[in-house]
Fold each of these.
Amino acid sequence: MAGHSKWANIKHRKARVDAQRGKLWSKCSRAIIVAAKNGGGDPAANLTLRYAIEEAKAANMPKDTIERAVKKGAGELDGESYEDVRYEGYGPGGVAVIVDCLTDNRNRTAPEMRLIFGKYGGNLGATGCVSYMFEQKGVITIEKDKAPDEERMMDLAIEAGAEDAALDGDTWTITTAPADFLTVKEAIDNAGVEAASASITMEPNNTVEVRGGDAKRVLALYEALEDNDDVQKVYANFDIPDEELAELG
């Protein structure tokens, strides 16, 4: 899981920057609105909404902001209308990339995605061209200084039903089957351990190692995609060696 842990750390660092700029809350709000619109405003009966709310809580989104987004999606308040769109393609070095968007205008979003991929040495592909290389998983990250000792953290995660618990640098990454995600998250919460992030994600079955210029362009592509307002999640199967990451900052 070492490759995954580095990928999770990159996403976690990016999430902290997004949170400072307010961008992460905007993305969480869109996800809640769409989940409530498609499945109703009761989290107990709408698993997708529960996932979206858990992710918003992990991003420290205020309770009243979450509730307002639920009401917008459920039609109790006026709100925006979004639709789910998934884009797939390749980045530098043959890296597979999946981009999940929530957009109010496909005719705007599709050209923007094509432009971003092309700018950083990638290309947008057809639906399904890379998604078969990924598997849906629940992923919870915890900062080392907010976790118990290593043995206790491992026991807590595995006893709760996690598939894996790995410490890489200053971050724990807990991986679960989607069906066990909420159970594991609740066990961690009940143990008084604060999660830095928690979400259902797409994990690569295999990774592609990239170095040098390709590594720099892959990270630039990832950043550019995530910075787009319509983009909710970016998944990729790249693995950048530690020494390369250190050089790239």
Note: The domain at 2-73 is CATH 1.10.10.200 (Arc Repressor Mutant, subunit A).
Amino acid sequence: MKVIAINGSPKKEGNTFHALSIVGKELIDKGIEFEILHIGNKMIHGCLACGKCAINQDEKCTITTDDLNLWVQKMKEADGIILGSPVYYAGIAGTMKSFLDRAFYVSGANGNLFRQKVAAAVVAVRRSGGSTTFDGLNHYLTYGELILATSNYWNIIHGRLPGEVVQDHEGVQIMRVLGKNIAWLLKMKEVSKDLVEAPQKEVKEITNFVR
């Protein structure tokens, strides 16, 4: 089993990285492979709303100036996905937002590639805006029918300078518990896959409010 963590921070080893690493240590200790994809320092274009990923049905975004299509396939092949972001103006960091908009649109337009994977969102924040950012990340996971893992509080850890989050003892515990719960859910899924039938995917119904 493998979990892919997306590091949406521009800083390769900033507080988002440290938060994800705490979660990852618990997964590795349980025999689960763990990889962090650092996308926060890349030049990632926002979605063009061209709809070509739905028309072509090739699991690809038509924008080829970044490695999003490679990252989508890594996420598709993984058993679990963790989204990690710092807080920018009480929200998801801009590059991470562009990544998520395109990755999850490609997924949804091509049969929901991430459906029923175990997932979680992780937020690193200096002071305020952690809850709104956490909520924003969870919008993608719940839209995609992923299975949310939880901890003993919201998955938010506090610090300013890189590595400072390790001094947030409650935050560190939150990340540890989250890692253990992700591992447990993954192993439960593996054990029960031949015993309990998974819900069948339904064709998405789309409506609007124009009369």
Note: The chain is about 40% helix and 15% strand.
